[in-house]
Amino acid sequence: MASYHWVVLVLACTCALSGALAARDLADDPSMAARHEQWMGKYGRVYSDAPEKARRLEVFKANVAFIESTNAGNSKFWLEANQFADITEDEFRAIHTGYKPAAAADKGRSTGFRYANASLDDLPASVDWRTNGAVTPVKDQGQCGCCWAFSTVASMEGIVKLSTGKLVSLSEQELVDCDGTDKGCEGGLMDNAFEFVVKNRGLATEADYPYTGADGSTCDSSTAAATITGHEDVPANGEASLLKAVAAQPVSLAVDGGDNLFRFYGGVLSGACGTQLDHGIAAVGYGVSGDGTEFWVMKNSWGTGWGEDGFIRMERDVADEQGLCGLAMQPSYPMA
């Protein structure tokens, strides 16, 4: 199954006129066809016929124009024509995201917040659960819209490590096939998945129930290798509360993953980003860059060819209470 990975992130302070002229120059450049050919070779892309190739070239041109104009004069992050550079934003959202926000009736539900009384002054200046052995290698959801399952598993793997001392790679496919509340490759919600894990008394290992990148025809639930006791939601729209939680464990959350800045990212993502939550990821740390920019460390599920070996740093403590790309709107974490 082909997997289209992109790396793009940018937000440059260029004027609209110069950006438009740069985009036009790129589109008229005859070498763009050669650049597209090189890109096809790098990512193993093959098209069904000449008309499809011509259509994809036009999409490639438009995405490269956006990337080049964004990168001009930007220093905190950059965008790159990654594996996603020949598909449109709508196609990308349909194939590579999959988070379904909670229904309005559930958004006000209170689950308690065990880290409410933690003092911000007492928290470490930086935390990285990767170096603390609580994060498995980056995985790849492919063309199945089950980011919600990968986000759920990432935070569950973390709390299992912290509670048992063992880091176990758990099965996203079991969630895709067996969690009847969520919709497999058509999308889902991490809170629902946590509730399924509790009822199911755990999840199998990745080895016992491997990922296929497609909805299974039947649920073949295996012996559980690890479980959780429940989950809690982080109070919405508050990065301070999220910081308290991430200081203690990896946390599942949602972002506007279809935004072009997120899609083609590299560096410390900052600037204007949407809040149309459609993609589940996991916060696995936080820190401060060399220029003083505070950031979150997020684990994604688009393979190691995207972002920074599959991870992304996103600016922290921004003016918008919802967080960059909406990251503080609906975080939650499992308990063990």
UniProtKB/TrEMBL annotation:
One Gene Ontology term of the molecular function aspect: cysteine-type endopeptidase activity
Keyword Disulfide bond in record: yes
Alphabetized UniProt keyword annotations: Disulfide bond, Germination, Glycoprotein, Hydrolase, Protease, Signal, Thiol protease
Single Gene Ontology BP annotation: proteolysis involved in protein catabolic process
Cleaved signal peptide residues: 1-22
Gene Ontology terms: cellular component: extracellular space; lysosome
Domain of life (superkingdom): Eukaryota
The UniProt record lists the keyword Disulfide bond: yes
Domain Peptidase C1A papain C-terminal: 123-335
Domain Cathepsin propeptide inhibitor intervals: 36-92
Family: Belongs to the peptidase C1 family.
This protein's name: Uncharacterized protein
Organism expressing this protein natively: Triticum aestivum
